[in-house]
Specification:
2 copies of one chain form a homodimer.
Chain A (H helix, E strand, L loop, with lengths): L4 H5 L9 H10 L3 E5 L4 E3 L7 E7 L2 E6 L5 E7 L4 E2 L14 E4 L3 E7 H5 L9 H27 L3 H15 L4 E3 L4 H8 L3 H13 L3 E4 L2 E4 L1
Antiparallel strand pairs in A: 1-8, 2-7, 3-6, 3-8, 4-5, 4-7, 9-11, 10-11
Chain A binds a DNA duplex through helix 7.
DNA sequence: ACTCCTTTGTTGTAAATACAACAGACTTGT
DNA sequence: ACAAGTCTGTTGTATTTACAACAAAGGAGT
C-alpha cells in the first residue's frame, strides 16, 4: 500500500493531507487494499456496504444491466476517485448498481465508521478528510446531474453534442480523449450503438468534429 | 422562523437535534428565511452559491430548459429536504440547473462556511449537523442514480414502469400519489407528454394499473 | 504471417417516438 | 353561472430509433 501514498496524496479523499499523515491514517483507519482483475466484480447490485473505496490503479465502471440485456453505464471511476460514499449512510439501503473493474485495478477500502468517528489518537487531518468526503460526494453529485443533462436530450445527435462539448469544457481543449469504447459510450448515453456510430460519422462528414479511436476534436 | 422549528426537527439537516439546540443553531449559523411565490426563481443556472437551503414550506423543482424548449425536471425538493449541498464546495463551479418554486414556498438559507467551521461557542450538535449534511447529499446521490435508472430504459412504457414501481416501493404500498402533473412526469422521464399519456392509458386498459389524477394503483 | 476475436462502420426494415392539432374535463377568477 | 385558461386524453403523420445482419479494420496470440 505504501507505493500508493503519492496517488493517495492526489486523491479526492486525502487532498491537502501530507505524506506522513497519510501513512499514519492508513494505520489509524485500518485501510485494506484488494486487487481485482479486469472484469471482476468489486461490488454487486443489492449488496450492502460499510466501506468506502479509493481507486489507486486501473479503471472502474459503475453499471447496471436490465433483463432485456441493455447495459447502462452510470459512472466511470478513475485513479484517485472514490466509490461507495453514497451507500454507507445508516438508511441508505442496498447498492443500485454493479461495480466492475474495467482494467486490472487496485482498490483501498476504508471502514466508514472509523472515518466518521473522531479518533482518540492524534489524527490532525481527520476532520479535513471528512470535509473532503463531503466535497467528493458533491462532485459526484454534479457529474450525475451532468449525465442526466446529456440523457435528457431527445435525439442521439443532441446527446452526443451535449456529452462531447462537456468533455471539451472539462479538458479546457477542443481535443480530448474519452474513457469509453463506442459500445460503452452508447451504454453511457443510453442509445443504440450502431445508430450512434452512424450519427458520429454523419457529424464528421458535416465537418462538426473529427475523431480517431477515442480521441475527439471538435471543430 | 420560530414556527418552523418543528419542521426543521424533522428535516434531513437537523435530524437528531433537539428543539432548543435548533433555536440556538439558527442563531449561531445566522440562518435567514426567504419567501417565494409560485413560479419564482430561487436560484438560476450559472449562479454561484455559498449557502445551502432547507425547504420548510411548499415545493421546489430543480429543472433545466434547453433551447429547443424541452424541459428536464431533474429533482423535486419537498418540505424538510435541502438544496445546494452539491454546489458549495470550493471548486464546484456554477449551478447546472434552475431552482424554481412550484408552490408558494419558504426557504431557510445557511452559510456553508459557518456550517463547516466548528464554532467557538458551545454548539454540541454541530458535528452531527455536518454528518447529516453528508448523509443528506448521499441520499440525493442515490435518488439521482434512480432517476438515471428510469431514464436509461429504452421505451416510454419501461420508463413508466421503472418509475412507478420505484414509487410503490418507496411508499411501501401499491397505492400512492406522485408529485407531478402529466407534463411534469413527462419532463422528469424525458419523454413526450402525449406519447406518455397514451402509454399510460394503454397500460390501464391492459389492467396493469389504475390512476385518478396523481394517484396511482399498481395491480 | 496467420487465425481468431473484438471493435467499428454501414445499411435496410420494423417499431417506437415526437410533434401537431384538437376535444373534453376540470379549475380559477369574476 | 359564466368565461378563460389549463390539463389530460386521443389520433394521424413524419421522423427517429432500435435491431439485425454483415463488412471492414484493428489487435492479440501463436
Amino acid at each position: 500500500m505504501q507505493k500508493y501514498v503519492d496517488t493517495l496524496k492526489r486523491s479526492q479523499l486525502f487532498y491537502g493531507v501530507g505524506d506522513s499523515e497519510i501513512v499514519a491514517m492508513l494505520n489509524c483507519l485500518q485501510a485494506k487494499m484488494l486487487i481485482f482483475k479486469k472484469g471482476d466484480y468489486i461490488f454487486r447490485e443489492g449488496e450492502r456496504i460499510d466501506h468506502i473505496t479509493v481507486l489507486v490503479e486501473g479503471k472502474i465502471l459503475v453499471q447496471h444491466d436490465d433483463f432485456w440485456g441493455n447495459r447502462n453505464i452510470v459512472n466511470v471511476i478513475r485513479v484517485g476517485e472514490m466509490f461507495g460514499e453514497a451507500y454507507v449512510a445508516p438508511e441508505s439501503g442496498a447498492l443500485l448498481n454493479d461495480v466492475i473493474a474495467e482494467e486490472d485495478s487496485s482498490v483501498i477500502f476504508f471502514d466508514i465508521k472509523r472515518i466518521l468517528t473522531v479518533c482518540s489518537t492524534a489524527c490532525r487531518f481527520h476532520s479535513m478528510v471528512v470535509q473532503n468526503l463531503f466535497f467528493s460526494i458533491s462532485e459526484k453529485n454534479r457529474s450525475l446531474v451532468q449525465k442526466i443533462g446529456h440523457m435528457s436530450k431527445r435525439s442521439t445527435r443532441a446527446k452526443l453534442l451535449s456529452y462531447l462539448s462537456d468533455e471539451a469544457k472539462r479538458h479546457n481543449s477542443n481535443r480530448f480523449t474519452i474513457p469509453f469504447s463506442r459500445q460503452q459510450l452508447a451504454d453511457f448515453l443510453c442509445v443504440d450503438r450502431s445508430a450512434m456510430s452512424n450519427e458520429l460519422c454523419k457529424m464528421r462528414d458535416e465537418g462538426l468534429l473529427k475523431f480517431d479511436k477515442n480521441e475527439f476534436i471538435l471543430l
